[in-house]
Write a structure and sequence with these properties.
This protein is α/β, with parallel strands linked by helices. 48% of the residues lie in helices and 14% in strands. Helix 6 packs parallel to helix 7, helix 7 runs parallel beside helix 12 and helix 8 packs across helix 13. Bound molecules: nicotinamide-adenine-dinucleotide and zinc ion (ZN).
């Protein structure tokens, strides 16, 4: 007779999320301090630097400065040829781009304790992080996010993903990074629409988790929309902090359960991105998604209408257009609920705001009420920015 052996494993992940400026300036020790412990105990350390091409072009000399910084602070560090590759959603959607990224990581001769340091937007970090998490079942990943959205949300968490015909982020891994280095200097070159995208994620997490932050965002929405540097830094810091706190304290960092509060508004956002052929970016789609679910929450009695109004006004004041004609295909949009249910593990769980700073989980969505909310959003979206 053989009894059952119950296996139980606890694994602890610790990583720093650093906030700085000009991280490759010789005198800036933020990156050196983060890498030093691991590099000094490695017999033959190596680091592959992967740079999103647009960021490399807009920040002249970036590749050389990164190279010089690493050589200066870590004379023994082996640096395989730097990879400068396209980013954006295509980098995690197009099989040829994904394969190119994977080949670069796989052929750099890295052992499991070597580093991949990726510098780019959230999509580039997702694609490079996915590749790094597969090679030798996981290399040490240092993320250097270069967009507001990636610095405050997508780049600080524990997941990687690429897109597939079966859905957005359909293939992915849980792979906590070795470290995240947020350099505010990168944000200066963002075009208007990308500069704004992260504001939607900040509203998302504020509405469901932090009433004070929600109030602050509403108050500073116009300044944020106008790219006020100081306000944007405060947003990035607080939003990243709330995300990290949720991952750390929710008791479910690897999303084994069904509740997914940080995905508030995302069932429709992901579907809208896909339906628009990714012409609607993630942040813009999230703005519409959270506005839509707030209207639904107000109609179904979980959220005071005043809070839904504040949210819509705040998003509009930050410059978001809360409507895209792809939303008119309501049947297809509502299919997003089905993909979301499958992604969650079979049982639908949608997070709805329940008052500034609070949320509830619902296990069903009334399609006719949601259709009415889509209609309402189309009307409100035309009015909100003008009033
Ligand atoms: N892994 C996660 O947990 C997670 C969480 C949230 C979002 N995401 C993913 O993140 C992606 C969105 O990230 P994003 O908003 O950073 O989009 P993105 O990476 O597509 O970047 C947006 C655009 O900005 C450009 N860009 C990047 N940095 C720039 C800079 N400093 N100056 C000028 N242009 C720059 C990019 O080339 C791209 O054209 C989505 O694919 C989303 O699914 C992942
Ligand atoms: Zn998101």
């Amino acid at each position: 007779m053989y009894g059952t052996i119950q296996q139980s494993i606890d694994v602890r992940f610790i990583y720093d999320v650093v906030f700085s400026r000009d991280i490759f300036a010789g005198e800036n020790t933020a990156l050196r301090d983060v890498l030093l412990p691991a590099i000094s105990e490695h017999p033959a350390p190596a680091a592959l630097v992967m740079l999103e091409d647009k960021v490399a072009t807009l920040h002249a000399g970036l590749a050389d400065r990164a190279d010089q910084y690493l050589r200066r602070h870590f004379p023994g560090l082996r640096l395989p040829p730097m990879a400068i590759l396209p980013g954006g959603e295509k980098a995690k959607t197009d099989p040829a781009s994904i394969s190119k990224i994977l080949r670069h990581v796989a052929s750099a001769g890295l052992d499991r304790h070597s580093f991949v340091m990726a510098i780019g937007g959230g999509a580039f970090l997702d694609a490079t992080g996915y590749a790094a998490s597969l090679v030798h079942r996981g290399l040490r990943m240092v993320r250097v996010p270069t967009t507001v959205l990636a610095q405050c949300d997508g780049g600080v968490g524990v997941k990687t993903a690429i897109n597939d015909p079966a859905g957005k982020n359909f293939l992915g891994t849980f792979a906590p990074p070795y470290a995240v280095i947020n350099d505010f200097n990168f944000l200066a070159t963002l075009p208007e629409v990308e500069g704004r995208a992260g504001i939607a994620e900040a509203f998302k997490v504020a509405v469901i988790k932090d009433a004070d932050f929600f109030g602050w965002l509403c108050e500073h929405a116009k300044a944020l929309g106008a790219r006020d540097e100081q306000a944007m830094e405060q947003l990035v810091y607080r939003c990243a902090e709330l995300h990290l706190k949720h991952i750390r304290e929710s008791g479910d960092p690897f999303e084994m359960g069904t509740a997914r509060p940080l995905d508030y508004g995302h069932w429709s956002a992901h579907q809208l991105e896909r339906m628009s052929g990714y012409a609607v970016g993630h942040g813009a789609a999230v703005a519409m998604g959270i506005a839509l679910d707030a209207l639904y929450a107000a109609r179904t009695g979980t959220l005071a209408e005043t809070v839904a109004d504040q949210l819509i006004r705040g998003l509009a004041d930050s410059g978001f257009t809360l409507w895209h004609d792809a939303l008119r295909a309501t049947d297809e949009l509502l299919e997003g609920l089905e993909s979301f249910r499958e992604h969650l593990g079979g049982r639908l769980s949608i997070t709805l705001p329940a008052g500034a700073g609070r949320s509830v989980e619902v296990s069903a969505v009334d399609a006719s009420i949601m259709r009415a909310c889509i209609e309402e959003l189309s009307l409100r979206a035309c009015i909100a920015p003008c009033t």
